[in-house]
Structures are given as C-alpha cells and as structure tokens.
Design brief:
The structure is a homodimer of 336-residue chains. With 336 residues, the first copy, chain A, is α/β, with parallel strands linked by helices. Chain A is 43% helix and 15% strand. Strand 2 of chain A pairs antiparallel with strand 2 of chain B. The first copy, chain A, binds a DNA duplex (16 and 16 nucleotides) through helix 2 and helix 4. Chains A, B: It comes from Rhodanobacter panaciterrae.
Chain lengths: 336, 336
DNA sequence: CTGAAAGCGCTTACAG
DNA sequence: CTGAAAGCGCTTACAG
C-alpha cells in the first residue's frame, strides 16, 4: 500500500482536499465536527503530509543545514548535539554535511543544500569573504560559527577565546606564578590566535613585568611534548605553562614527567577546552571550559530569529559564548 | 532576486523546460550543441534545481535519515562521521534526529522523517518489535543498528561484542591469568550482555577450571570504582579484571590505585571500547577497539543496497563489525 | 531532437 | 463553512 495522500483523506472524510488541508493545519475555517471527522480519517489512514509537496508551495523546508569542517571528536559531537536540541525545540530538522576537503567540495555541499533548508549554520575553514560572496545564496539566512571571518555582512557566533585565556592568566598570576609560558596553536587558526592574544593582554595589563614567552605548537599532543622539552631548557625556568589547548597541555605534562619534574609542585600546567580526559590525566588538568553544546544551541537560536524575521536586518550581529575557568590540580591551586 | 527556476533557464537558452530538464539530467535526447547552450544559461543564472519539486515527481529525496538515541560523546560523533562519509560517497544527504526521551518522541521523529528520506538508519532503545511494527513505514528501507531487536524482518548491523570479549579473555588467559573478574554493564543493555556472554564462553572453552566471577556495574566510572573495591575484598584475589567498558576499567584502576595496588604488576586491567583517553590513563589501558565509524559506514552501505534494489528482499540480513584487541600496559603483557 | 501537456501532493486565494 | 481551481517547480511519456 502506498502512503495515503490528502486526496485519500478527503475521500474518506467526504470533504474536499481544501478542507482537509485547513483542518490539519491551522484548523480554522472548518467546523469542529468536520475537523474531527477529518482527523479521524487521517489517523485511520495514517496520513502524513508529503513534505516535498508542502515545501514546494509554502517555500519552507522546516529544515536547517549545518556545514561543518569535520565530525571528528568530542567537539563536533557536542556542537551537533546543541544544534539538534535547539532545532528540535523549534520543530526544525537538521541536515548535516561535513569533511569537505577543499573549497570546491564545500561549495558543492553548499549548493546541494540550496532549496533543502530554510537556513544555514556554517563552520568551514574555506569560508573566507570571497567564498561566501561567491557561494552563499543571498536570501538564505546564515550564521557563521568560528569562521575566520566575521564581517559586518553576516551573523556570527564564536567562543570567547580571548576572555577565556585572560581568565586563565589571571588565575595563574593569582597563584603567584610570574613566568608563564604560552604554547601556541596552529598558525592561521583563529581560536588559537585569540587565545594567544588574551594571554598577551592579560599579562601586559596585570603583570607588566612578566615577559610573554611563546612556544610553537599545533594543537597536537606531540607538539605539546616538544614544547615541554623546550620549557625544560628555559633559564630561568618558567613557573607555569598555559597551552592553547588541552591535548598540548597533556603532551607537555608527559614531557615534564619524563624529565622527573613534578606538576604542579615545580611547574603549573593548564590548558584550554576541557576535553573529557582533562579530569582523568594525572594530575587532573586545570583548563578553560567551553560550552560547545551551547555554542551550537545559540547559533541555532540566532538562525531561528533570522528565519522568523526575514525583514529584520541582522547582518553584523555577533555573539560570543562564555568560557569558564575549571580549576583542578595541575595549576597548583589550593583545592577547597 | 529570487532563485532561478527551470523556466528561467529555458527562456534564457530559448528552449522548452523539457529540454532543460533532459540536458541537465541524463543529457540524452538533446544535441550536444543545445545541451551546451542550456548548461551555459544554467550556470549564468546560477540555476540549482528545486529539490522539493524534483522529489515530488521522482519520489526520491536523495536523503537518508539517522535516528539516534543521543549525540553525547565520542561514540556518536564517530558513528555520524562514518554514516556521513558513506552517504556522501553515494551522493546522499544526511538528516539526523536524536535524543528522544520516550517512545512517543521517537515515533514522532520517525513520522516526521517520512517523505523526507529514502531510507532510515535506526538506533533507538525504544525500537522494540511492537514499536517498529507500529511506527516504521513498511515501504521505507531501514537498517537497524545495535537495537535490542534483530529479528528476521529487518536488516541489522551490530558490533561483534561477543567476539571482542572472547579476544580479551584469550589475551588474559595467554598471559597466565586464571582468576578473571568481569564487570557487567547495565542490565538490559544488549552490548553489555553480549560482552558478558563472550567472557563466559571464552572462559568455559579455554579454561574450564577458571570460575566466572561477575561484578555489577552500569558503564559509569563510579560503578567501576565500586567494583574495584569489591575486587580488593575477593579471596583469593583475582589476577585480572575485564570491564565491560573502558570507563569502568578506569574507575576500577582508580580504586586499586587508591588501595595501593599496582597495575598491572598485581592485577591486570582491561576494558572495552578504546575511548580516546584509554591511551592516556596511567597505565595505558588494554582494551577492545570497535571501529565505530565503520559501523556507521557499513550500515549506510547496507541501506544503500536496499535503496538501489527495492525488489531484492534483504530483510533478515545481519552483519557484524569486527572488534580488535589493543594491547597496552594495563594487562601486563610484555610490550615488544 | 524538441515541445506541449499532464501530473506529483500540497496550500491558498477566490467564490458561493 | 466549504469546494473548485490555480499553481509551486520539476520530470516524463507522448506527439511531431
């Protein structure tokens, strides 16, 4: 048996298809009695309106698209979870697309989304100004997430990397540390750059005498290990290390441990992200927690606002998701 | 400017819409010259066919739906990644829906997917026989993933929990351990039950004299810690612990460490899953690695086969994804 | 090879 | 309140 259509319901309830449509949608313009008869017929026939037919005429898909760079790891799983939750709350479906190796693939994915979604959540390393100009349908509500670009032409949402980094530096300074090394993330990575900026700013404003000491890294554990070895060679030896992400902090701890250095007694260590394993390493890692799921939810909210108010100009709206300090053993704070 | 339609392209290329459709689809029934003119017009107008209109007539959405219980954690992120990769390879879009608190919510999600997808990947704790019978559109290709049920009526794909558990027991036996404790997962969880079965079978067949010693657990780290405390009280003391998942193994290690027991010198520990932090705990955890992404990809493949061959009866097809032994320090094996 | 026309399943003015 | 009809954008027999 093929799926029932609105015609079948109309026949079953002995009314016109127009009445079926009215009864099942806003419910107005139909007597309660007729409406009930129609509903009965619909459920008897297990009628589900054909989404494509409805989309064709209403111009609404009730679906939003999320274009992500990758789906690897906890970060994206949390991000999608947050998006999904907020989308569901609005009765919207979620179409995901990821792992576009190059700008062409991302553009193709963007094109394929056209007509399938009412709005777009976009996080892509390829999404620079030219790319967006070229590939983004002009009338499609879009929210940029953590892309390198956050110009006045688009809505954007990002993590408060800067503020989070400042919190960490203030924490380390408050513990009396003065020589605080920063391990960088990959060059060209905006999150990493913002974290470094926060580090430099906080140091300059709260402890002008403390030098900014920056070591190279690329977010990998290995690069953290190598940075840890460099830390050991520095004279005078640093009090503390602040890595631009947790994995490098963990790598750095391994290097210090291999050299017989005690953390946090001899050197404090801290990271950024609060990955799940941060609490399980030895010693547990002090870090900055980012509410990834909230990033997703808020982006979805922002997108929802745009979709609901197509005439309101929201371009240029830029919001930030808070980052919080999570104090554990590795920074050497007295834990209450 | 509204998006261009097929009519606009037809006008621009001075042909009928029928020719545009033919040129842009199979390309047959049109001279090369006309075809080229149409393609030029289409790209000039940035024409993208309206997905809903096409779906309405072709009855194909080129989208598959994934109904998942939750999106929390590494497992689902890997699963979606695998699904997405395989879907993309087939030119299919991916619609995800998750976190259905009860059977009603799951049923609603299922209904909402109807007409939006060409096939369904289903992993849900609510999906028992009655639920599927009641809510699954009969003509929609579906693959069940790790649901409690894998009857002859559906296609299914699952992890070889049983085989994985056997591999682990054989590994521990080969190392000379004879009193091997098993920490259970939550009751009612099929994965957990299969892992326990594998443990019992391997023990019975390879070391009939070794007693099966089973402690309660629920997959949480805390329950692993409690089980670890129970292990300490057992007399004679066990040689080894095999936890039904990694988090419990990690909790158990913490309990042993707190009691001053050395792992693996005094007791070997092992888990199941190979979560990312398994390699970072001290000592690194011997475990069973499950290729989650592959689980997703294979499910997608199986679904693709069904979609491509609607007449072939594939109900009852049941495939399994391999699980592999990953030897690290915690089981006490001599590492080469 | 090419075009006119029907039709996919729905919603929404427009009459009555 | 209710129904007949137009139309959303596409594809596909059917003629020519």
């Amino acid at each position: 048996m093929a799926a029932a259509t609105i015609k079948d319901v109309a026949r079953e309830a002995k009314v016109s298809v127009a009445s079926v449509s009215r009864a099942l949608n806003d419910g107005r313009g139909v007597t309660a009695e007729t409406s009930q008869r129609i509903r009965d017929a619909a459920s008897r026939l297990r009628y589900v309106p054909h989404a494509a037919a409805r989309t064709l005429i209403t111009r609404r898909t009730n679906t939003i698209g999320a274009l992500l760079p990758d789906l690897y790891g906890e970060f994206f799983s949390e991000l999608i979870r947050g998006i999904d939750l907020a989308a569901r709350a609005r009765g919207l479906h979620l179409l995901v697309s990821s792992s576009h190796d190059d700008a062409d693939a991302a553009a193709a994915a963007l094109r394929a989304m056209q007509g399938r979604v009412d709005g777009l959540l976009l996080m892509s390393p390829h999404a620079d100004a030219a790319f967006l100009q070229q590939n983004l349908p002009h009338d499609l509500p879009t929210v940029l997430m953590n892309t390198r670009l956050a110009g006045a032409d688009y809505c954007a949402l990002s993590v408060d990397n800067d503020g989070g980094a400042r919190l960490m530096v203030e924490h380390l300074l408050a513990l009396g540390h003065r020589r605080i090394v920063f391990i960088q993330g990959p060059s060209g990575n905006r999150d990493a750059a913002e974290r470094e900026l926060g580090y430099r700013e906080a140091l300059a404003s709260h402890s002008p005498d403390s030098p900014a000491i920056v070591l190279h890294g690329d977010f990998s554990e290995e690069s953290g290990y190598r940075a840890g070895q460099q830390v050991l060679a520095l004279r005078p030896r640093p009090d503390a290390v602040f890595a631009a992400n947790d994995m490098m902090a963990i790598g750095c701890m391994a290097a210090l441990r291999d050299a017989g250095i005690c953390v946090p007694e001899e050197i404090a260590i801290s990271g950024f992200d609060d990955v799940p394993m941060a609490r399980y390493v030895t010693p547990p890692l002090t870090t900055i927690q980012v509410h990834i799921a909230e990033l997703g939810s808020q982006a979805m909210e922002l997108l929802g606002e745009q979709i609901d108010n197509p005439d309101t100009v929201m371009a240029g709206t830029h919001r930030r998701v808070n980052a919080e300090l999570v104090v554990r053993v590795s920074s050497g704070a007295p834990l209450v």
